[in-house]
Amino acid sequence: GQSLEQPSEVTAVEGAIVQINCTYQTSGFYGLSWYQQHDGGAPTFLSYNGLDGLEETGRFSSFLSRSDSYGYLLLQELQMKDSASYFCAVRRDYKLSFGAGTTVTVRA
Amino acid sequence: KAGVTQTPRYLIKTRGQQVTLSCSPISGHRSVSWYQQTPGQGLQFLFEYFSETQRNKGNFPGRFSGRQFSNSRSEMNVSTLELGDSALYLCASRESGGHEQFFGPGTRLTVL
After folding, report:
1. Using alpha carbons only, how large is chain B's radius of gyration in Å?
2. Which residue among A13, A38, B20, B70 is least enclosed by CB atoms within 10 Å?
3. Which is it for strands A9-13 and A102-107: parallel, antiparallel or unpaired?
């Protein structure tokens, strides 16, 4: 099965930069995705890395290195509304497997 | 386009009962997946359906089943409910070949 590891919690101040790492033990997957989930809400898609390298979408960037079995999500210019849980996920054989999630708390 | 809808939003059942949850995907999306979310286990994959065919199933007992209809709407059923089945059940739809899963608001199931 797929195993994805990410830190459980990260705390940072407004305006800071946070990097959430995701290491995985799987092969043959199609790409690494990231989702954001606010308390009481549904997960929403943030980014997808199908190839190695950096993908940038506004304040958020995501990176994948298949050779290192590693990816990360970079949150820049943190805002209070970024306080949420962030999940990395990989798809293989029509199954999307999620990491346990990283709770990001943004302090004023 | 309307988003993914799930009914009911909240449900309270007792042990031993069964429950059916419904999901309507975004119009045009033929792929529907179901997930169970709990504080202890996180987001766990249940099944994925495409054009009425189950393409994969997660590591859940046979009490968990699902189906998809010709209009892509999907249902999941849990029989002989156990306390541990209390969870948020999320449905998501995806365009064919797309990477982005669009999640519904979920059904919060409480088993007493």
Report:
1. 13
2. B70
3. parallel
For A33, which of B44, B45, B99 is closest by C-beta distance?
B99
**B2 to chain A nearest CA, in Å?**
15
In the predicted structure, residue A1 carries a pLDDT above the cut 60: no
C-alpha span between B7 and A36 (Å, rounded): 22
Residues counted in chain B = 112
CA dist., res. B5 & res. B22, Å (int): 8
The answer to whether B30 faces chain A, any CB pair under 8 Å, is no
Report how far residue A11's alpha carbon sits from residue A8's, in angstroms, rounded to the nearest whole number. 11
CB contact under 8 A, B42 and A101: yes
pLDDT by residue (tens digit) across A36-72? 999 999 999 999 999 999 999 899 999 999 989 999 9
**B43 to A87: CB separation less than 8 angstroms, yes or no:** yes
Measured CA to CA, the distance from residue B107 to residue B8 in angstroms comes to 6
The phi, psi pair for B85, rounded to 5°, reads -80, -5
